[in-house]
């Protein structure tokens, strides 16, 4: 079973509290999603491999640790996942970005695919799929399946808010995937929205409601 990591860092809790507030503006919501994405990325990249390298400081020669050059791909689930990409890119600016387009059917709550484009060498990359919301888990599970169909192997999923139902569905569908969660919420409502949640992440990011 993959790791399920729920953040308890005070900065993340504070920023998630602001994100939830219905009075938070579209601009502030976007800024907060980016900031939380970066803070989460700092922890989610903890296991990147290092290699030794010899350099010269102004004082002497020394051996230092540098990234082994593990190639990274960030894969947002459109639309709302885009809100977490810039935060991750500020940590790993050389990462490539793939996109999975999914929307949730309002009646069935099942994901509908409309786009998928991955870097060609996705099979060799460490992949971070990002989406603010893990509700039923259908979108995340389908996104992981699509990335695997394109050759992706080493996959981590990152979200801002997760319902227990979504965590269970994703980890059962893809037990090899680690899941990083900024805040774990109580449950889903009758429309499969997360409670207390933050509403519709895509609409709040882009001001479409
Ligand atoms: O876990 P699930 O039940 O599948 O729900 C979560 C999905 O719903 C939202 O996307 P939405 O369908 O609203 O698309 P959008 O990002 O374009 O707004 C969210 O960003 C997830 O992708
Ligand atoms: O609470 C939810 C559930 C699905 N999608 C969202 O944006 N929010
Ligand atoms: Mg939406």
From TrEMBL:
Binding positions for 5-phospho-alpha-D-ribose 1-diphosphate per the UniProt entry: 79, 104, 131-139, 200
Pfam families: UPRTase (PF14681)
Domain of life (superkingdom): Bacteria
Gene3D superfamilies per UniProt: 3.40.50.2020
Cofactor stoichiometry and binding remark: Binds 1 Mg(2+) ion per subunit. The magnesium is bound as Mg-PRPP.
Record key words, sorted: Allosteric enzyme, Glycosyltransferase, GTP-binding, Magnesium, Nucleotide-binding, Transferase
Cofactor(s) required, per the database record: Mg(2+)
Amino-acid positions noted as binding uracil in the UniProt annotation, renumbered to this chain: 194, 199-201
GO MF: uracil phosphoribosyltransferase activity
Protein's pathway: Pyrimidine metabolism; UMP biosynthesis via salvage pathway; UMP from uracil: step 1/1
Spans traversing the lipid bilayer: none
PANTHER family reported in the protein's UniProt record: ADENINE PHOSPHORIBOSYLTRANSFERASE, URACIL PHOSPHORIBOSYLTRANSFERASE, CHLOROPLASTIC
Protein name: Uracil phosphoribosyltransferase
Protein's gene: upp
